[in-house]
Amino acid sequence: MQADLEELRITQKELENLSGLDVNEVFMGSAWRPSIIRYPKRLLSFLMTEVFTFGLILIFCLPIGLIVARSFGGLTGDASSTAQFLQVSLGVSAAIALLWNLYMWQKGKSLTMLAHLLDEVDKHNEIIAAVDVIDELGSVKNSTISLIDRREVLAALTATRESLVCALMTEKILRKHKRFIARRHELFSNIETNLATLQHLQVTNQADEYGQLLNEALQIGMSVHQELKKGT
Amino acid sequence: MKYFAVLITLLRDRTLFLEEIRQGIKIESKIVSLLISSSIFFAIYGAIIGANSSLPQVISSAVKLPALYLITLIICLPTLFFFDILFGSTLAFNQYAALILTTVAIISVLLFSFAPVTLFFLVSIRDYEFFLLLNIAIFALTGLIGVKLFYQGMQFVTESNYKMFKSREPLVKLDQAEDAPDDFVKVQDATPVEDKSQRMRTKLLQFWLFLYALVGSQLGWTLRPFFGAPEEPFQLFRSEIESNFYQQVIRIIFTVLGFQ
Description:
Chain A has nine helices and two strands. By secondary structure, chain A is mainly α. Chain B has one domain (2-162, 199-257). Chain B is globular, with a radius of gyration of 23 Å.
């Protein structure tokens, strides 16, 4: 791949830095990516992960259940009680696996924007791979295949890359400060009540130096209020 | 598959892997990958030793062998963590989990590498006692290598936390010591304290390994049968609790050697 094309790719390591989470084809952080349904290879990876996790939970539950059941005298060593024990253990394992999946799905709900951005990054990388293929075909002698205007394509890809990187960084910041953003109306109403209090104080203390200080504080408060109103 | 990729990274460059654990890079994904890959290797080896008896025993051993190692690990992990914190370690709980899992994963790979040997002996020699003894030897060998690597790993990871307190050179050269003002601290005096602390932590590691062996052998005894004695029918567990692990080993050695 040519060097200028290579640096337009968004690598997995870069994605992890930008989003602050451990992302790959199937996971983002500790949640499933919704796009795994669309690609059979990712679906297979997802299914295998599910199978392995269920196996792991089984490995932990069965022996612990065995020890617990035996110490409480539940097992007698004949076939029917063994079968019952197995059913109970499998049920508990299935319940734990279900709980884990619910947890992952819940986590995924707050990351829908990131999921969309990651799909866009995948498409961007695919376009770069396609351009690379055309480049290689074009480098063959006597070839008639070439990009119509390589420079423009690269410029467009650079612009896309910039906007994707900015979007990922913004998403990370918004996600990290979700609580503040949810509370912004409360914060603004606090500022407004403080402003009203300042105005009231100003009217009653206009004449003296204290009143001058209050005047300045009021000016500052009003300009802050205006800036914030502009920002929302 | 990416789970095995993590394991292969561990095997190829253990120092780099341990360094990443010390810095806390992608610990959760390391833990999950090592759990899954080591379970798979243990399950395969467990299936082989269960094949000595019958099909249900194959499945039973394939589930019990990973459980043996992993549950022992979970039982003993808090002890290691809290004792080490008491002696001044700065690592987090998940870093300890990842460290011990590297040891368990390496043991699982070593066991898996003995699988063809065990399979060969399973097929060619139909002697239960000999097979048992062979496997005990294999488990002991892999356990010893795992222990040695565990020591190295722990010392590598925790030593780096102590390096910043050790200085290589004294602040004042010894021949100028008489001229030095009184408030200069002679740094050489600092090192004996760190040596003592290091020895304490090595002793702690040894104690913990002994604890792990104790819990592991008791769990193994409780979860038996792993091999399935030829004259007994398949049972999920043996309902009689007779003697203990070490007595049995001695009895088996005597039987194979012909005294009994």
